[in-house]
């Protein structure tokens, strides 16, 4: 399965200046739980937003830069090339950024969305989730609390 995983605001905002505009510790835990042990596909800027490669995951980075070779990562020049580097019989997670989400939403089987219940000024946005294409199959609401400045809902969508 090809699974897109993203935290997305009500106005489809993803981030600004190559960073998230919110901090949700439980969402980070869920991201780690779901993606650990799997291939994760991302753009170069998303990879560079991490302090170091994420443990227990195989990183596939899409970049147009020649001679880009971060240690321990697989490199592709296109989404199609990146997908060929991932095992066909295992779940592969697409983790961003915005351009990679736009390119991959047409081939994804599942969307794992954390819907952040607020709107944000952003420069990167998630593509529209079209109801005729995607069926919401699970929702789990989390209220705002002392560790989370925003309420959010985990949403799972399956391609119809």
Set down the secondary structure blueprint.
Blueprint: E1 2-9, E2 13-15, H1 25-35, E3 39-43, H2 44-48, E4 58-62, E5 74-76, H3 79-84, E6 92-96, H4 98-104, E7 110-116, E8 124-125, E9 134-142, E10 152-159
Parallel strand pairs: 1-6, 1-7, 3-4, 3-6, 4-5
Antiparallel strand pairs: 2-8, 7-10, 9-10
Structure description:
By secondary structure, the protein is α/β, with parallel strands linked by helices. It has a single domain (2-159), classed as Dihydrofolate Reductase, subunit A, CATH 3.40.430.10. Helix content is 18%, strand content 34%. The chain is built from 4 helices and 10 strands, in the order E-E-H-E-H-E-E-H-E-H-E-E-E-E. It has helices spanning 25-35, 44-48, 79-84, 98-104, and strands spanning 2-9, 13-15, 39-43, 58-62, 74-76, 92-96, 110-116, 124-125, 134-142, 152-159. It has an 8-stranded mixed β-sheet, sandwiched between helices. It has a two-stranded antiparallel sheet with strand order 2-8. It starts with a strand and ends with a strand. The model has no long low-confidence stretch (mean pLDDT 96).
Major β-sheet profile: 8 strands, mixed
What topology, given as strand order, has the largest sheet?
5-4-3-6-1-7-10-9
CATH architecture: 3-Layer(aba) Sandwich
Strand content: 25-35%
Class of secondary structure makeup: alpha/beta
The SSE string, one letter per element, is EEHEHEEHEHEEEE
Q: Alpha-carbon distance between the termini?
A: 14 Å
Number of strands: 10
Rg value: 15 Å
